[in-house]
Amino acid sequence: MRTLPASLLMLALVWAQRPACGTDLLYERALQENPDLAQMRELLEQATLAFLEQNGPSLRTQTGCPESDYVIPVVVHIIHSGAGQSDSLPLSQVISQVEQLFDDYRKRPYSKGYSSGVDTRIEFSLATKDPNGNPHPGVTYTHYSAAGLSAPRVSVGGSDATTMKSNTGWPRNKYLNIWVIQCIYSSSPSTCDVLGFATFPGIGSSTDQGVVVTSSYFGLPNQSQTTTHEIGHYLSLYHTFQGGCAGTSGSTCSSGGDRVCDTPPTRQANYGAARRQNTCLESSTLTATGGDRPDQVRNYMDYLDDPSLDIFTDGQRQRMTAALNTAPDRTPLWQTSNLQATGTGPYGRIKANFALQGCDQPPCYVCPGQQLNLTSYSMGKPSQFTWEIKQGSTVISSSTTGPCTQLTAPSTPGTYDIRLAVSNSVGTAETTYTGFLIVRDPAQARSFPFTEGFEGSTFPPAGWTIQNPDYRTANSNITWDRYNSTGRGSFGASNAMARIRNFIYYNRTQRDHLITPLIDIPATAQNPVIEFDVYYRALYWENTSANQVGYLYGDTLAVYISKDCGTTWQRLYYKGGEDLDVTGSAIQVIGRNISTTDQAVPPSGANTAWRHEIVSIPPTYKGHKVLIRFENITEMGNNLFIDSIQVREATPSALTSSRPTPILTLTPNPTSQEAHLTIRHAAGLPLQWTLYNTLGQALLSGQGALVNPEEHITLPTASLPEGLYMLQVHLGSETTLLRLVKE
Ligand SMILES: [Ca+2]
Ligand SMILES: [Ca+2]
Ligand SMILES: [Ca+2]
Ligand SMILES: [Ca+2]
Ligand SMILES: [Zn+2]
């Protein structure tokens, strides 16, 4: 049986450090009064599982035009200490909070909510009608004494909070009630140690349901995610650290921890800024995450400071969807009749927003006549849309299709605005994004061969572009930049290079793009290739004393090409982790914290530390103006450098470069389970290999022809006795011998 006082004491100790969320405490206190709640909660969990089991496939396939699937009417009750006081928040600040809920829950492009999470397709709409159907701004103002309080503060789950709620709340089956008050505390009134608390579905009386948030954390830029978090609880989400490291396998993840399979378990709540850590070890059966993964500290349901919170996972979306469909105190909210009654969604406030597919960061570069896929991210479920591409007051082209539409980019190069006007049954709104679209001039395409060494001080170099999806994230806005340090350029031959600092990039799976200008590949080009130099060291970190489970933080570099100006991309190169590492094995940090000296920097002076890569351009790109895109997918690992980019014809001298490039590599070496032979060479050569022991006996062999400029062959070495082996490789007319050690 649980010892409640002890657990309360523990929570109080945690909170002594920093204000946090009171939802768990509210539940503990409610449970103390009514032990049957645990049973009710379990019934709801069973309904959730049943719903997900029954509707899983349709929930997993979200296709087509992204729209809000559910709209929740919201009323905000400002409990203040006097008109004009700082806790009497203006309507504009409430509207700002509701807009930021849209950004977070809808993962709206070009907002802070556009991170590596998902679009939950849930929208919150500030009521325009009161419970009697009369027009209302959706915000009520009540002096704390009129709400039945002796001061502008409430305790988590205390009778003061119950009194405030029942004195001011609107019907809980029609509105999500949000109370905003100066101070919330767990046990000592002077501490104000709680930022907010919420009721889970099915828990709490009908007058208790809703969310309470501290006024200083409501509706301010980069200080609005407490409400996002508390509404997550209101829609049945637990903290990602619920149950510590419970739910680490495929069979326990839906019943243990936060009961969401694609959120990696986290040993404890995390505070402050985002960081690299791995406190729980998931098994390979946890396929929703792909096995063990670092803690997802940026999840809205952890405790980081608001600027670092920006992820809901697909599993969380599905769980919230299940709550909206199964919890009796949530299902009435989003019904069309209720949206009409409360003046919300298609009957409520409206705001126009949009995005261009494939463009993560405006201005968006396109080509003349290119087809543009535009998507409305407007609030208020508009039914009518007017899209316009404009230059000044001149409309170049327009469409009335929506919420998703296609427009053709102007035929004349230049800078254009995009305007979206929308309307629903009660109102209209419009947004013009000035300078949103830049139509490239194909006549300015660079000639072939093309080179770039990043020695000029401008970055990105003229004509190059950067796409940085998380550019609105205030405190971790990492993307490609230029690094300049004497003699550290590739092979010691220059000073500057392109770099991305994964070492301090705590936004796992974010993709940052560095894109060349248009390059004109002649139809007559013989074997065109992209050549570049890369310097990268992966990072392995294990520090059991600090609850850091060993993990290889290995970032990925991918190279793509497009002949339709970026509408479609073909991937030509993809290498990550220790495969990308120039030494073939990561920097090992074991038994201590990572320090800045573990940060990768290319050595200065003539050296062989860089790797030269040659990537074939498929013949279909000949005779086209192409874009080449270098993509970094961060794993919070280590800095990645590229330099000396060349787009040119492959020449024998390029392929058998005097550069100290290993054409054949064998890793890992020593090996245990298997070894990987990597061959970089022109395609088409016949290949034959044989593994001998020291007695000259052939143990393994294979043959074929090189199809790609880079081929990987896996040698199954698990059953070999320990010792020294020789791998003989015939490549065309050349023969190479490589040593391999089995341990
Ligand atoms: Ca989980
Ligand atoms: Ca983990
Ligand atoms: Ca350089
Ligand atoms: Ca970025
Ligand atoms: Zn919470």
Structure description:
- This protein is α+β, with helices and mostly antiparallel strands and 743 residues long.
- It has four domains: 222 residues, Collagenase (Catalytic Domain); 87 residues, Sandwich (Immunoglobulin-like); 212 residues, Jelly Rolls (Sandwich); 79 residues, Immunoglobulin-like, CATH 2.60.40.
- 15% of the residues lie in helices and 32% in strands.
- It is built from ten helices and 39 strands.
- Strands 1, 2, 3, 4, 6, 8 and 9 form a seven-stranded mixed sheet that branches. Strands 18, 20, 21, 24, 30 and 32 form a six-stranded antiparallel sheet that branches.
- A hairpin with a 4-residue loop joins strand 25 and strand 26.
- Helix 3 crosses helix 7.
- The N terminus is likely disordered.
- The structure holds calcium ion (4 copies) and zinc ion.
- The site of zinc ion has 5 residues, from helix 6.
Q: What is the compact description of this entry?
A:
The protein folds into 4 domains: 22-56 and 66-237 and 312-326, Collagenase (Catalytic Domain); 354-440, Immunoglobulins (Immunoglobulin-like), CATH 2.60.40.10; 444-655, Jelly Rolls; 664-742, Immunoglobulin-like (Sandwich). The radius of gyration is 29 Å and the shape is globular. The chain contains 10 helices and 39 strands.
